[in-house]
Amino acid sequence: MTIDKSEIREREKRKRVLFLFKVITFILLLWFSVDLSKKLLPYISFIDNVLKAATFLLSSHIIISLGRLITVRFYLRKKGQDPFRSNFVLGINHIAGILNVLVLVISLMFLFGIDPGEFFTSITIVAAAIALLSKDYITNMINGLIIMFSDQLSLGDTVKIGDQQGKIQDVTLLNMVLVNEEADIVMIPNATILTSQVINYSRQHHKKLTFEFEMSLKPTLEITSLEERLKQVAFSFDKAIVKNTFTLKTTEIKHQTVQLKCQFLMAVSNKAIEKEIRRTINQTIIEIAREN
User: Fold this and answer.
1) For residue 85, what pLDDT is reported?
2) Cβ(131)–Cβ(141) under 8 Å?
3) For residue 50, what are the CA distances in angstroms to 100, 103, 108, 127, 267?
4) Distance between CA 234 and CA 229 in Å, rounded?
5) Contact assessment for residue 37 and residue 48, using Cβ atoms and an 8 Å cutoff
6) Is the distance from CB of 188 to CB of 175 less than 8 angstroms?
7) Pairwise CA distance, residues 87 & 151, whole Å
8) CB under 8 Å, gap of 24 or more: what pairs does 97-100 form?
9) Burial category of 74 from C-beta neighbours within 10 Å (exposed 0-12, middle 13-18, buried 19 and up)
10) What is the pLDDT of residues 201-236, one digit of tens each?
């Protein structure tokens, strides 16, 4: 769900046309509301409630749409040719959607002759109980909005969240949707994202390749020769990697095995080359493990 700036502008044009239609409909409703009330009252006893609900619904929608259009237009103009982060617009759309749902609920109250002020006052205890029961949902919603308005993550970024890695396809009020290398759809709750370690590879100038593996603790195992062999294989991809970033670290020594981590940066962003490097390094690690 990566959206570019031109697509956003086209959508905004359609939304401005819809906004104009709402304004015209609202003006016509105000113009003819008195006449409609007089003519339809003998046939529809609750016509005043219908007109009141429709007037409130349209006027509120117009105000919300106007605020949304102004905010998005200001954001697009401010960005100009700068890097564009479409999740900001996504956040504005979600806030507008929440407000529109609230307006719809209040409009239905007007339709059925319920006073919203008295209604919300009378259900204060019930509302508190509902909020308590749905606190996880509310927390996810708030965290989702925080992520949308953050400049740290954006649609299309390649990230690692906990054990999951993939490209951000969408951010909803409940979760973030990732697409991993196997094209699987992974949904991570927003609350989990803000409490987990997040690595944004798209923010790095060079992509880091990491290989974690174990080797048996045998007399034939020499870390120095292992490092030289892996380095020789990695350096065979001469222009694809940054040579002075190659490292081989011992992360943990156990009773019978030792855990190692090999890392280096790619000089170019190329999926095909990255896949070939990973395959070659992994195959070399397997061969070394068999030899030992």
Assistant:
1) 58
2) no
3) 18, 15, 9, 27, 65
4) 9
5) yes
6) yes
7) 9
8) 99/60, 99/64, 100/60, 100/61, 100/64
9) exposed
10) 777 656 788 899 999 888 888 899 999 999 999 999
Mean of pLDDT values over 179-192? 88
pLDDT band per the 50, 70, 90 thresholds, residue 104: very high
| Burial (CB count <10 Å: 0-12, 13-18, 19+), residue 194 | middle
Structure tokens at 190: 């927003």
Q: Supply the pTM of this predicted model.
A: 0.61
Q: Can you name the residues that pair with 211 across neighbouring β-strands?
A: 262
Residue 260 DSSP SS3: strand
Q: What is the dihedral of CA 100, 103, 109, 114, to 10 degrees?
A: 160
- CA–CA separation, 153 and 194 (whole Å): 11
Q: In what order do the strands lie in the sheet with 198-200?
A: 185-189, 175-179, 164-171, 158-161, 198-200
Residue with tokens 């960005």: 79
- Report angle CA 212, 214, 217 to the nearest 5 degrees: 150
What tokens appear for 172 in the block?
């909803």
Q: Is 255 helix (H, G, I), strand (E, B) or coil?
A: coil
Q: Cβ distance 59 to 26 under 8 Å?
A: yes
Tokens standing for residue 41: 């009252």
What is the DSSP secondary structure assignment for residue 185, as one 8-state letter?
A: E
Q: Which two tokens stand for residue 11?
A: 């959508």
pLDDT in tens, 229-262: 999 999 998 788 888 889 999 999 888 899 999 9
DSSP class of residue 202 equals G
CB 5, CB 84: distance < 8 Å = yes
